[in-house]
Amino acid sequence: MSESLQIVCPHCQTTNRVRSDQLASAPDCGSCKKALFDGHPAALDEAAFDKHIGRNQIPVLVDFWAPWCGPCRMMAPAYEKAAAQLEPQMRVAKVNTEEAQNLGARFNIRSIPTLALFVGGREVARQPGAMTNPADIVRWARSQLPG
Ligand SMILES: [Zn+2]
Question: Which part of the chain is the Thioredoxin domain (predicted)?
Answer without folding.
Answer: 20-146
